[in-house]
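User: Please predict the structure of the protein below. I'd like the answer in structure-token form so I can feed it into my own downstream comparison script.

Assistant: Understood. Taking the following sequence of 351 residues as input:
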Amino acid sequence: MQINQERLDQFMGQVVGELGAAMNAALVLVGEKLGLYKAMAGAGPISPGDLARRTGTDERYVREWLAAQAAGGYVSYDAASKTFTLPDEQAYALAFEDSPAYLPGAFEILSAVIKDEPKVLEAFRTGEGVGWDERDTALFEGTERFFRPNYAANLCRSWIPALDGVEEKLNRGARVADVGCGHGASTILMAKAYPKSEFVGFDYHGPSVGNARRTAARSGLSNVSFSVATAKDFHGSTYDLVTFFDCLHDMGDPVGAARHVREKINGDSIWMIVEPFAHDRLEENLNPVGRVFYAASTMICTPASRAQEVGLCLGAQAGEAKIAEVVRAGGFSRFRRAAETPFNIVYEARP
């Protein structure tokens, strides 16, 4: 080995930064669950004692937490007054759950990934999968809380309008199947936006379906229901729109799922597929967003696919060409990219 000291020092500095970020993931969850960020939002400069009193927490722990947040740039610190401030931009991302930039759900996913590391480690050795139903419950809640703000910001405002003729159908009254709905965030958002249409959310994970039903009941919606079913056996008569949100790449047999979707729509219907943003070549995805998605794919998506029949393992960075290949193998002849954000690509598929 020939060590270049300068490059080694640069890498060690990078790792120190990442260790701090990794440790901070737990602190973000503490701040979110104890309401520390919410108490600081719009409050201006605040002392550890005041924040502790406002949140019913211990001042010494809060002081240490604030110091770590300041060191990481999550809050600012004024040495003269010994007070801490949560800037508006950070508050928008950490304290307001209806913000499209709300982030704590992502850290909840990280918590689940760490807890489930032994299961994935064993899967590396055996080549077997780790099913969604085998994961820590923080993954289910974190996934819903992470994706919901993005869906709230984009789904009914830009993604559905980008689909050919779909919004007009939904406004008149249409039948929609939301497959892989999880806790039902996407299904409920659409049901609220298009009250004349009927929405059915399907997911193979029973507890998630139960959670979705309870959320819909609290919302007072009468045009939405949820059922336990897989992407290859979801039921009902023909649908005008079938949606898959961030789940096709997790499926063991995405081609089989595509074939079933084709059986459940007619010639004028559309299959809407939302997938993580990805280019077709690995080298094009070697960036901060790609890094997050490849890591999530390693720890969540690939094990989930391997736990199912076929186990194709598309991965979260499959790319448009691979998604198109799956869609066409399922019997669809028309496929296009309808919309995109820095984190998602929306595809439209037609018979």
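That's the full token string. The longest strand covers residues 265-276.
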